[in-house]
Amino acid sequence: MSEVIFPLKGRRIWVAGHAGMVGRALVRRLEAEHCEVLTVARARLDLRDPDAVSAWMRAERPDTVFLAAARVGGILANTAAPVDFLHDNLTIAASVMRAAWAEGVGKLLFLGSSCIYPRAAPQPIPEEALMTGPLEPTNRWYALAKIAGVWLGQAYREQYGADFVSAMPTNLYGPGDNFGLRTAHVLPALIRKAHEAKLAGARRLTIWGTGKPLREFLFVDDAADACVHLMTHYSDAAPVNVGSGQEVAILDLARTVAAVVGFAGEIATDPAKPDGAPRKRLDTAVMDGLGWRARVSLIEGIEATYRAFLDGDWRDGDR
Ligand code: GFB
User: Fold this and answer.
1) Phi-psi region of 291 (alpha: psi -120 to 50; beta: other; left: phi over 0)
2) Is 315 in the pocket of ligand 1 (CB under 6 A)?
3) Would you say 69 and 92 are in contact if contact means Cβ atoms under 8 Å apart?
4) Contact status, residue 304 vs residue 175, Cβ threshold 8 Å
5) What is the pTM of this model?
6) Mean pLDDT over residues 164-170, rounded?
7) Does residue 2 register a pLDDT over 90?
8) How close is the Cα of 75 to the center of ligand 1, in Å?
9) With a 6 A CB cut-off, is 178 part of the ligand 1 pocket?
10) CA 228 to CA 198: how far, in whole Å?
């Protein structure tokens, strides 16, 4: 079991991207840490603007940063908006890291993603697989920006001794997710599709692709807990995978979601839509060694996310 090397008590912690699904979970999680949490609305601070970010940090003086802000989206959103996914994620990472270094922030955690690994990486994917092969084409713009973010953090560590670390979470889901059918990730999309099919009395629900790809899912509160664990227990250049070990084929996921939602009809596939990566399960040996593991089961997480959807705790990223 590793020790706490960076306690959070009494710190001024900026959660960049606090209104997003991961940022909100981080704000919830940090309530237990007796620290001061800083947030700033998107309308007040454009994180892509380096001078504005520097000025805000100079005024607010955070000493710790969780960089959870990003442009994210599902498989079709990624392919439809390559500039947005590459440019916005590059500039957010560059602006926040530069300002964090210049303003003397003590520690920063950057959120990468499991999709930054090569399409043909060995499974489960160890951290060393980064940059060893071609990327999955459906999300290469996003992946490239996130790789640059991870490497930028390493560069600040190498050149200036900055304590910047990176977490690589697997596919995340939970309350506050984007449920817009065109732009969502698979899990919220399936919940909404199954719910609407149930209400409409439809006999059939159609999922994208063949239903064969495997995905590993991590509930967002577990992801936030893992980020806090890394912030407090880890300080090194190498990014660290954050997984759940809960891997499922998309067609089986659709069946599970249908059972939770109460949709009893047929589930059809649409092979004209992209499958994306065949599999991207993370090797979590490093995180295991740091004494952390996920707690929320896939079924509990889907139930909680469906409850949040019914309560209106979601957004429609298609709008
Ligand atoms: O979650 P998802 O959009 O992204 O799709 P990725 C996962 C799988 O679910 C793909 C299938 O095989 C989709 O074809 N799928 C089935 C659906 N039905 C649906 C549906 O209604 N909506 C969606 N969205 N998918 C993401 C990247 O890749 O991985 C992100 O695009 C991010 O940038 C994330 O990095 C971790 O898992 O393929």
Assistant:
1) left
2) no
3) yes
4) yes
5) 0.98
6) 98
7) no
8) 5
9) no
10) 38
Q: How far apart are CA 91 and CA 107, in angstroms?
A: 20
CA 187 to chain centre: 13
Pair 269, 203: CB distance under 8 Å: no
**Average pLDDT of span 114-141:** 97
| Averaged pLDDT score across all residues of the chain | 97
The phi and psi torsions of 107 (rounded to 5 degrees) equal -160, 145
Q: Residue 158 — φ and ψ, nearest 5°?
A: -70, -45
What are 131's two structure tokens?
């940059």
Atom 23 in ligand 1: which residue has the minimum CA distance? 186
Rounded mean pLDDT, 298-309: 98
Reference 37, options 73, 13, 63; nearest CA is: 13
Position in ligand 1 atom list of the atom nearest CA 276 = 38
142 in active site? yes
Residue with CA at minimum distance from ligand 1 atom 17:
186
Between the CA of residue 248 and those of 50, 88, 119, 155, 220, what are the distances in Å?
A: 40, 31, 18, 36, 17
Could you tell me the pLDDT band of residue 1, with boundaries at 50, 70 and 90? low
Q: How many residues does the chain have?
A: 319
**How confident is the model over 42-100, as pLDDT tens digits?**
999 999 999 999 999 999 999 999 999 999 999 999 999 999 999 999 999 999 999 99
Cα 102 from chain centre: 26
**269 strand-pairing partners:** 207
Q: Which residues are within 8 A (CB) of 110 and not within 5 positions of it... i.e. 6 or more apart?
A: 67, 93, 97, 149, 150, 153, 164, 165, 166, 167
Q: Which residues contact 88 (CB under 8 A, 6 or more apart)?
A: 48, 70, 71, 145
Asked whether the beta carbons of 125 and 114 are under 8 A apart, the reply is yes
